[in-house]
Amino acid sequence: LAPENTLMSFQKAVEQKIYGVQADVVLSYDGVPFLMHDKTLRRTTNVEEIFPERAYEHSSMFNWTDLEKLNAGEWFLQNDPFWTAGSLSRSDYLEAANQSVCKLADMLEVIKDNTSLILNFQDLPPAHPYYSTYINITLETILASGIRQQAVMWLPDMERQLVRQIAPGFQQTSGLKLDAERMREKGIVKLNLRYTKVTNEDVRDYAMANLSVNLYTVNEPWLYSILWCAGVQSVTSDSSHVLRKVPFPIWLMPPDEYRLIWITSDLISFIIIVGVFIFQKWRLGSIRTYNPEQIMLSAAVRRSSRDVKIMKEKLIFSEINNGVETTDELSLCSENGY
C-alpha cells in the first residue's frame, strides 16, 4: 500500500488497525535515528541520482540534511514490488511518489497510541562517530516519544542489560531459535523467527514455556490460516490489508469432518477392491475347458459344409488308427508273454 519504512506506510498500517509494526533503525552521521532496511540507499531511494559518487556508502554515513534530499517513494511506483501500485487512488499515488526518508521520531508519533513496535538495528561501521553510543541515542528517542514501554519489542541481541536498566518495560525479543530454558535465562519473552524455521512442536513448546512467537514474512491467507491453527500468536506481513479480511482460518476442516471424509474414502476404496476381486473370480469361472477335437469342431462352424465333412473324416480316420495301434501293442505284449 505504500513504500517501505516511509511515514505513509506506517499511517496506512495504523488505518488497517494492525497489532504492531516492525522498523529497522539506523543512526545518521550526525546522530539522527531514521528508518532503513538495507545497508545502502540504492534500492529504496534516488541516491544514485542525487549523490552518484556516494551510492554505495553505508546509509549511516549520510548526514540527516543529505538524507532529507532523497526521494523514498518513486522506486515503489516504478518497480511495483507487490503489484499494488496500479490499485492506488490518485491521491495515494501522488503521496507515495513524494515520500522521503522517515525519522524514527516521526514514525513513533504516528503509532504510539495503539500500536506495538518490533525494533531492529543495523550495525554501524566502526568509523561512525556514534558507534559506541547509538543505542543510548535510540533509547532516548523512543522514551521521549511517549510510547508505552510494554508496546516495544526489543529485537537486537546486543546491550540487552543496558536496555533493561534504561527501559525495563521493553519486551525482550529474540531473533534466534533457542530452547525455552535458555530463553528464560536470558529474560526473553518473545521470539521473532522466519516461518520456515519453526515446527508445530516448537510452537507448542514455546507456548508451554510462556513464550509468544511472531513469524515473518506471511502474505498468503492459506499460510496465515495454517499458522493460526498451529497456535502462532502473530505474524509479520507485507499484506496486512489482505490478512485483516480473514476473520477465521480458511479452507481448513473441523477434525470431525476430516475424519468422516477419511473413513468414507477408506470404505469406498475397500468396496471397489472387493468388487474387482469378485468380478475377476466370476470372469475366470465362466471360462470352460475344451479338448482339441471340440476346439476344431467349434472353429469349423463358420466354415463351409464341405470343409466340415473333410474335418470329420480326418477325425474318424485318426480314431481308427489309434485303435489299430492299440491292438498291435496288445498283440505284441501277448506274444512276448506279458
From TrEMBL:
<dbReference type="GO" id="GO:0005886">
    <property type="term" value="C:plasma membrane"/>
</dbReference>
<dbReference type="GO" id="GO:0045666">
    <property type="term" value="P:positive regulation of neuron differentiation"/>
</dbReference>
<feature type="transmembrane region" description="Helical">
    <location>
        <begin position="260"/>
        <end position="279"/>
    </location>
</feature>
<keyword id="KW-0378">Hydrolase</keyword>
<protein>
    <submittedName>
        <fullName>GDPD5 protein</fullName>
    </submittedName>
</protein>
<keyword id="KW-1133">Transmembrane helix</keyword>
<dbReference type="GO" id="GO:0012505">
    <property type="term" value="C:endomembrane system"/>
</dbReference>
<keyword id="KW-0325">Glycoprotein</keyword>
<dbReference type="Pfam" id="PF03009">
    <property type="entry name" value="GDPD"/>
</dbReference>
<keyword id="KW-0963">Cytoplasm</keyword>
<dbReference type="InterPro" id="IPR030395">
    <property type="entry name" value="GP_PDE_dom"/>
</dbReference>
<dbReference type="GO" id="GO:0005737">
    <property type="term" value="C:cytoplasm"/>
</dbReference>
<dbReference type="InterPro" id="IPR017946">
    <property type="entry name" value="PLC-like_Pdiesterase_TIM-brl"/>
</dbReference>
<keyword id="KW-0472">Membrane</keyword>
<keyword id="KW-0812">Transmembrane</keyword>
<dbReference type="GO" id="GO:0008889">
    <property type="term" value="F:glycerophosphodiester phosphodiesterase activity"/>
</dbReference>
<dbReference type="GO" id="GO:0006629">
    <property type="term" value="P:lipid metabolic process"/>
</dbReference>
<feature type="domain" description="GP-PDE">
    <location>
        <begin position="1"/>
        <end position="247"/>
    </location>
</feature>
<comment type="similarity">
    <text>Belongs to the glycerophosphoryl diester phosphodiesterase family.</text>
</comment>
